[in-house]
Sequence to fold (255 residues):
Amino acid sequence: MGAGLAVVTLRNIIHSAVAMMVCFGSLAGMYALLGAPIVAAAQVLIYLGAISVLILFAIMLTQAGDANLPAPFHRQVPIAAVISLAIAGLVGWAVIQTDWPAAAEAAAAAVEDIATAIFTEFALPFEIISLLLLVAIIGAIYLARRPEEDERAN
Amino acid sequence: MGLQGYLIVSALLFAIGTFGFMARRNAILMLISLELMFNAVNLSLVAFNAFLPPASNAGAVFALMIMAVAAAEVTVGLALVIAIIRTRQTAEVDQYADLKE
Fold:
């Protein structure tokens, strides 16, 4: 939580990226507490491993030097604060008002059950996800190609 | 901490992500805020899955799929941001106003 708040308020973008990593790590801990070890492992692998490194690389590629850091916030800070506070208030109020069935124990989800569910009940979404990842890879390669290189290729 | 605690943490995280997305000026920071929102939704899905067990672990499966989609999204998003930064020499979204017609 505090790390999440630090992500959006810190002025230096590298500091906020590190705060993001802390936030993702604590979320992985929460997943482990909730009895979903496979989700926790995927969180560590995908977010802490892949996405954080990707974002740090992007920051280091794009920020030549932090000589004059501009003001980090937009001029629409007040309206953004109002909208996000409204979201938090509404959702929190709904959560508190609702009578949840008293399931005090967090039921552990077995890895075998999740695997069976992925490959039987959710097989079609699984295949679509793989297609989406392929499209994303091709798109990223196309976008990241430098213009000089394809002039040389022609 | 019961279901309500997890859901409130998730709501606050989502609100923080919304605030960051709307208030920050750096394009990469906006992507990071999007990731925060994804994670908030994931947390609530996994919490529902753990505390209200219906069958078939749909919440955990959905969380895994959201993670895959988020990975694809951040890949393409960062490639776009880097391409734009390479031509504009800035990461501030205010400077992109000339992209409109």
Observations:
- Chain B has a mean pLDDT of 78.
